Amino acid sequence: MKIYNCFYEIVIKSLSFTIPTWVQILRRNYVILTLLLALNFIAATPAMAANLSGDLLKQPATEIPVSLGNSANELKFEPNHLEFEVGKRYQLRLNNPSQLKHYFTAKDFADGIWTQKVEAGKVEIKGAIHELELKPDAEAEWVFVPLKSGTYGLRCTIPGHTEAGMTGEIAIKN
Predict the structure, then answer these.
(1) Is there a contact between 154 and 110 (Cβ–Cβ < 8 Å)?
(2) How far apart are CA 141 and CA 90, in angstroms?
(3) Is this prediction's pTM over 0.90?
(4) Largest CB tally within 10 Å, which of 8, 40, 48, 132?
């Protein structure tokens, strides 16, 4: 390692004698300018992120109603195809008008969004959500922002419900 350090010093010292002074000044100014720009970017990033997130939370959420089943106890999501855009705020209004309990299960979708909150009754839940269970006549609200585009599966994981057609698709576009 000492050999490399000595070699480096010899090269640098020899270059400093052979490089004209104006090139050294130009190189020094370039390095200083680059460092200043980098520091400015680093200092500005948290402020910009705070403004973006603040603006996003002020953005009204697009409300989308989704029924898990229906009053005739049909095993389906209504609608069974949902579309969202990355970076926009949404509010899913989930309800279960049937006599059976149902699940809104979309783990890969849930991994590709930022959940602001899930509210059911008088309870508000924050954090990672992968599945919601809605009992008969239950309602829930899921407020989120999609972060990752893709197409994701939706299903009810109660035995027999997926096989009977209680499936859907969620598409997130850029």
Answers:
(1) no
(2) 10
(3) no
(4) 132
Q: Quick one: tokens of 169? A: 């698709």
Taking a C-beta distance cutoff of 8 angstroms, is the pair 100, 70 a contact?
Answer: no
- In angstroms and rounded to an integer, the radius of gyration of the C-alpha atoms of the chain is 28
| 90 close to 61: Cβ distance less than 8 angstroms | yes
Tell me how far apart the alpha carbons of residues 174 and 27 are, in angstroms, rounded to a whole number. 41
In a structure prediction context, what are the per-residue pLDDT tens digits for the chain, which is 174 residues long?
565 555 555 555 555 555 666 666 666 666 555 555 555 544 444 444 444 456 777 889 999 999 999 999 999 999 999 999 999 999 999 999 999 999 999 999 999 999 999 999 889 998 889 899 999 999 999 999 999 999 999 999 999 999 999 999 999 999
Helix (H, G, I), strand (E, B) or coil at 2: helix
User: What is the phi/psi pair of residue 60, to 5°?
Assistant: -65, 140
> What amino acid occupies position 10?
I
Q: Which residues pair with 50 in a beta bridge?
A: none
**Complete DSSP assignment for 4-66:** HHHHHHHHHHHHHHHS-HHHHHHHHHHHHHHHHHHHHHHHHHHHHHHHHHHHHHHSPPEEEEE
